[in-house]
Amino acid sequence: MTDSKNINNPVGQGGGQRKKLSRAERQNNGPHRNLDRQGAADKKAELVRKMREKARAAEAAGRANGDTAQS
């Protein structure tokens, strides 16, 4: 019995073809990870935008309350 030590040369895989994996894909850094990273960056940008909007609204409310208190 032959033992395979290379993921791109599997022994006993049912005779089917297997796509050669790049080094990045073998380390789980393939194209799917790039999409995950992009999605995470989009979520973070959206969160930062919402936080800034809330901060501006709170600042504007503080200014409005401060203006009425001084009058």
Describe this structure as you would to a colleague:
It is a single chain. The protein is mainly α. Helices cover 62% and strands 0% of the residues. The protein contains two helices and no strands. It has helices spanning 23-26, 31-70. The chain is rod-shaped, with a radius of gyration of 27 Å.
Secondary structure layout:
Layout: H1 23-26, H2 31-70
Low-confidence stretches: none
Tell me the total number of β-strands.
Answer: 0
Q: Average pLDDT across residues? A: 77
Report the biggest beta sheet as strand number plus sense, adding barrel if it closes.
Answer: none
Choose one word for the global shape.
rod-shaped
Helix content: 55-70%
**Overall radius of gyration:** 27 Å
First-last Cα distance:
92 Å
Highlighted features:
71 residues; 2 helices; 62% helix; mainly alpha; 0% strand
